[in-house]
Amino acid sequence: MSGLAAVAKLAQVSPATASRALHRPEMVARETRERVEQAAEQLGYRPNQLARSLRTRDSRTLALVVTDILNPFSATIAKAVQDTADQSGHNLFLFNSDEEPDKERRALETLRGHLPQGLIVVPTPGARENLELVPDLPVIELDRASGRPGAYTVMVDNRGGAYQAVRHLLDLGHTRIGMIVGRRNISTAQERYEGYCQALDEAGLPYQEALVLPGNHREEDGRQAATQLLSQPAGVRPTALFVGNNEMTVGAVLAARQLQLSLPGDLSVVGFDDSRWARTTTPSITVIAQPTYQLGQLACQRLIQLMSGVAPPEAHTRLPTTLIVRESTGPPPAR
Amino acid sequence: MSGLAAVAKLAQVSPATASRALHRPEMVARETRERVEQAAEQLGYRPNQLARSLRTRDSRTLALVVTDILNPFSATIAKAVQDTADQSGHNLFLFNSDEEPDKERRALETLRGHLPQGLIVVPTPGARENLELVPDLPVIELDRASGRPGAYTVMVDNRGGAYQAVRHLLDLGHTRIGMIVGRRNISTAQERYEGYCQALDEAGLPYQEALVLPGNHREEDGRQAATQLLSQPAGVRPTALFVGNNEMTVGAVLAARQLQLSLPGDLSVVGFDDSRWARTTTPSITVIAQPTYQLGQLACQRLIQLMSGVAPPEAHTRLPTTLIVRESTGPPPAR
DNA sequence: CTGAAAGCGCTAACAT
DNA sequence: ATGTTAGCGCTTTCAG
């Protein structure tokens, strides 16, 4: 670990000049600069970012908190944010809240000591409170809204997407359409639920409490909810299911399989969020696809913009979703 | 950002004592300590880790470099390492090399300035050279070996796993067994290849060059290799395929599907590394499962141990693999 | 047990 | 254009 002082000495300049030569080339005579650069090269000098950040109060570090790194959605977000941060010369701390407000809080506490310049967070239900831990930090909320006043968010059109999904099922002739929704205290789940209700409402179908089951976003939750919904006799159970996220869709489809219901003959399924699994399972699953990578990319771009003091053009950015019709949806069974 | 000075003032002690009260409780009178703790609490004090690290030369920061964050294998590793690091109070920088030595090098250069205490890396083929950038850093190589002398590695028994896979196919009666191997300059691929060869050899079957195709670890590579291997007429093409990693297995199975080969009737497939996809696709895929989470966990534990100056008990740790027989393997087609 | 003082490596004022 | 000085926030000698 040779420091700047060593470089300065070798180049026969003061440390200040060495620093300038490396970070503010235009402030230094070309000849001097070259001498410093060469010395740095020769010694394999790497600036100590800690010292630098301490002095400049600028860590060039961003942080991302996702809710479940094992979910391909989160992994894609992580890659997108990482790529984007990298391009602008920022480092990224990655945290995983596992949907637990408490882990999220601990992540933010840790973060605080590292003076990140900005934060992208997929908020848990506790985020509104947790984010008070970092009051002066530029934050972008991704995929969900915590409900904090004045927050900047980057999300998809959940309501519209859900509406599309249910509309598709209605068009096929379904009238008993169930939904496996996420936790209602998460904006994404709530909005998808509203889209579901709206589509039913417009079609003049009554809302049936018994057809809507909550889940906690994991595969197992989807399996349990679907099992309950589908264990009822034909003629009573739903003929179609709209499932609120990718993981629960897997669970729901596996449950249907286990109950020996064939897709789409006995049951149609539409999932929210595309995945390789949905594309390649048999039958392939009709989904509402989200532009996941772009979501992460945009969030990071917005954050960097925000950090530079420019308020984003809009507080809430919505990206559109796309209905991808595959093999898991068809007309309801003849009764 | 109220600093330690503010806390000290409020508690009516010197900054030095405040620091001790918070980090070396035993060196301070109980009464004083309580006063400081209270002051810290009241001001919402968070130590500036940058300053702390600069002074103590201990950043409590680890770094993990994976090769493809979108691969569930990497995501599981990331979660495991994150969890383990968290438990011992370490922060984690996560990087993604995308299998590119150049990205790996950039990650390490960046890292260097942040003075991480240790590094876990899934090495790219350039790692041996790249790791010279951080000569004094404790490093654990995970899943693969870079070939650096004296390196510590945590891996699975690739050779044994591959042997198991091929042995299983041999036991079913297959004699034309193909392999889609990864890049041979990656130890994991090489070892799995050796296991394949060994099994064939022991069974007295000749090695057939034409049955072994390389791939670059991605789904698309698996698809292409399998397409080439399986486009030959029945009676010539292999009746079974051993595929070197999870992503390529997906590609291979999709290729077989596209060629209208039924599994396991026309073709048996064994993949390396289990996944949800393998478990739930139809037919489900026989695999060699790895203890992925434990791999990450163990690597992190070893690293922390290594950082504390204790040399791990062994330079190379191998975890065992397990053959999980599912529906994609059966006897070869009657000729 | 506590305080004063020095300094981690760097950069920003301020001089020259 | 360059050097000198001071200090980011913290911890750690070294005294007392």
TrEMBL record, chains A, B:
Q: Which SMART domains match?
A: HTH_LACI
Q: A Pfam family for this UniProt protein? A: Peripla_BP_3
Q: In which domain of life is the source organism classified?
A: Bacteria
Instruction: Quote the protein name from its UniProt record.
Output: LacI family DNA-binding transcriptional regulator
| Keyword annotations from UniProtKB, A to Z | DNA-binding, Repressor, Transcription, Transcription regulation
Domain called HTH lacI-type: residue spans: 2-56
Alphabetized InterPro entries for the sequence = HTH_LacI, LacI/GalR-like_sensor, Lambda_DNA-bd_dom_sf, Peripla_BP_I
Cite a single GO MF annotation: DNA binding
| Organism of provenance | Deinococcus sonorensis
